[in-house]
Amino acid sequence: MEPEVRWGSWAGRQRRHVEGNCWIDRPPRESSSALPVVLVGLISWAGLAFAQSSEPSHSPNAASEADSIKPSVSDLRPQVTLRVYNYAHLDSEFLLNARQVVAAIFRAADVEAMWIDCPLSPEEFERYPACQQKARTTDFVVRLITASMAARVPTNDGPLGFAQRCPDDERECVATVFYAKVDELAVRGDARAHRILGHAIAHEVGHLLLGPNAHSSSGLMRGLWTPDNLRFMNWSYLFFTPRQCNQLRASLGRRNKLELQSDLQSSNLSPGK
Fold first, then answer.
1. pLDDT above 90: residue 90
2. Which of 11, 107, 131, 157 is most buried, taking the most CB atoms under 10 A from its CB?
3. Does the residue 239 lie in any domain?
4. Domain containing 45 — which CATH number?
5. What is the band of 190 on the pLDDT scale with cuts at 50, 70, 90?
6. How many structural domains compose the chain?
7. SS3 letters for 134-189?
């Protein structure tokens, strides 16, 4: 028998089952009187350029070394590495909780999420050696930015973040999350901020791997999150759909193949060859 679980204070029930390596969320029909929905991470806007911030910053509290979110099954899983720039200065315990959400979501898709803290200024480079290693095609930049930084980004409808287009051979493609929006949403939506943040990061990294038209009618990649979705995040997760899980792994497979070809080419061009 399939397990049944309640979505917070919903009167209806959600049936959940596993297809492949992915959990599928089946919410009850939403009421037409629900509160306004929340726009999440549209990637297809014009003019969403990434620029380095000149805003003063200080070192985050999290450890500087590469810190993987603990693998639970096998090192053979495809991996994504997130190079995180904590411009919002979130404390290490809060970020650890958000990282665990990211890890759980990707692990359900049979992908291992690795996390590297990165410096916020040139003066901090030596304290973050892992972030100075050569970036690979499966390395992505995640920027957690402040309200003042977000104000300089031309967006519509108050989204939680955005992601750039990311061809398979591109390195360090950028996903950005507006932390002030996450915090505001947590207060208004009766949800825990670190869980919203983890979902928002996974959503935007999903766009980097799946492309700009990856929104779905259910699960993590919904373009709109309802108040009920947010309350559900307090104790469970929104996941990628089975099709998206397959697409994630296929994208990482292509990227790893291109990386291997690049390594072989570099080796053949080395002195003495």
1. yes
2. 131
3. yes
4. 3.40.390
5. confident
6. 1
7. CCCCCEEEEEEECHHHHCCCCCCCCCCEEECCCCCCCCCEEEEEEHHHHHHHHHHH
User: Per the domain annotation, does 6 fall within a domain?
Assistant: no
* pTM, two decimal places: 0.74
Quote the tokens at residue 260.
């291997």
Residue 16 lies in a domain: no
State whether the Cα torsion 227-229-232-237 is positive or negative: negative
Q: In sequence order, which residues have a C-beta less than 8 Å from that of residue 115 and are 6 or more positions away?
A: 66, 67, 68, 69, 81, 82, 84, 99, 102
Q: What is the DSSP string of 32-53?
A: TTPPPPEE------TT------
Cα angle 11, 15, 16 (rounded to 5 degrees) comes to 135
Establish if 168 belongs to a structural domain.
Answer: yes
Q: What is the pLDDT of residues 56-70, one digit of tens each?
A: 333 344 343 334 444
CB 89 within 8 A of CB 57: yes
